[in-house]
Design a protein that fits this description.
The chain is of the alpha/beta class. It folds into two domains: about 300 residues, Alpha-Beta Barrel (TIM Barrel); about 30 residues, no CATH class. It is built from twelve helices and ten strands. The chain has an eight-stranded parallel β-sheet, with helices on one face. Strands 1-2 form a two-stranded antiparallel sheet. The longest helix has 17 residues.
Length: about 350
């Protein structure tokens, strides 16, 4: 295991993050406490120090397990949790980005984690109701109080993140240092706005669902699937396009001498910028397989093949600005003579 700086900070985190949404069986499909402990131990023994959870995961069980597992060496681990999603149904203030939910969610997470500070607090999703000023000032207050060390944002449009960080920087508040998004070979739309924004602002990116809920492992290939089949949380990932991508992942894995999961994870790890995949597991064998990605590196040929089969249209204005005529008039015919910034 090697370590990366988390965005524009000095925080060192492992190059793979352990996602703990599977810790607990409250939702009917997670890992038992015993199996969760084994998964955690394998990750920690490999040098992993970066853990991702949330107040809602398995109804709070995930945070309780994480708190118990890290108790003997709390200072070693970088614990990330999230707020926004509901603490209870029927209460309009028990969810959302506003300060009341922010504070009560953090207090609940601290109790479940049995710690007096959270290393990284994520805004879990944007609610479109709370003013940006309220969110950023509230997060800054938590940092100044010592209950939170760093803040990040998840599942939020790029323009909102850019506005929030610009405001925080100008006002001397704590800016976001990380961005959490769905990103994988079958979900490349973040390449349009989110990833360029993250690179420009120096944000670390922690992609969730790097295996697309198992689609990229190839386990659905060759199986007859009903038309309404959906993989986890209603996401329509079982499409003809995605299965073709999975088939190519399997071929690359065979040629590279690794597993399809390791190919999918390494495609992410080898992208530009600070990319730290979040890997989860319900069985200890799965986390061992995922960590095996650290022992491999995809060749340029394999990366190109995977890029080609999963390619998306970037749309306007990105493709418009790359047209030869536009480049001609935009750079006065000197584009190839201009030294480009890195």
């Amino acid at each position: 295991m090697r370590y990366k700086l988390f965005g524009n900070t000095g925080l060192r985190v492992s190059e793979i993050c352990l996602g703990t949404m599977t810790f607990g069986e409250d939702w009917g499909w997670g890992a038992s406490k015993e199996e969760s402990r084994k998964i955690f131990d394998v990750f920690a023994e490999a040098g992993g120090n970066f853990l991702d959870t949330a107040n809602l995961y398995t109804n709070g069980t995930s945070e309780k397990f994480v708190g118990e597992f890290i108790a003997s060496d709390r200072e070693y681990f970088v614990v990330a949790t999230k707020y926004t999603l509901m603490n209870r149904s029927g209460d309009p203030n028990a969810a959302g980005n506003h300060r009341k939910n922010m504070v009560q969610s953090v207090e609940g997470s601290l109790r479940r984690l049995k710690t007096d500070y959270i290393d990284l607090l994520w805004v879990h999703a944007w609610d479109y109701l709370t003013p940006v000023e309220e969110v950023m000032r509230g997060l800054d207050d938590l940092v100044r109080s010592g209950k939170v060390l760093y803040v990040g944002v998840s599942d939020t449009p790029a323009w909102i993140v850019a506005r929030a960080n610009t405001m925080a920087t100008l006002r001397g508040w704590t800016p976001f240092s990380g961005l959490q998004i769905e990103y994988s070979l079958v979900e490349r739309t973040p390449e349009r706005e989110l990833l360029p924004m993250a690179r420009s602002l120096g944000l670390a990116v922690t992609p969730w669902a790097p295996l697309a809920a198992g689609v990229l492992t190839g386990k659905f290939l060759g199986k007859k699937l009903p038309e309404d089949t959906r993989v986890k949380e209603g996401s329509p990932r079982l499409t003809e396009r995605n299965l073709k991508i999975a088939s190519e992942v399997v071929k690359v894995a065979e040629e590279a001498g690794c597993t399809p999961a390791q190919v999918a994870i390494n495609w992410l790890r080898q992208q530009e910028g600070t990319i730290i995949p979040i890997v989860g597991a319900r069985k200890v064998e799965q986390i061992k397989d995922n960590l095996g990605a650290l022992e491999h590196h995809l060749s340029e040929e394999h990366m190109q093949r995977l890029n080609d089969i999963s390619k998306i249209e970037l749309g306007f204005p990105h493709e418009f600005l790359q047209r030869e005529f536009i480049k001609e008039v935009l750079y006065a015919g000197t584009y190839d003579k201009i030294e480009k910034p890195k």
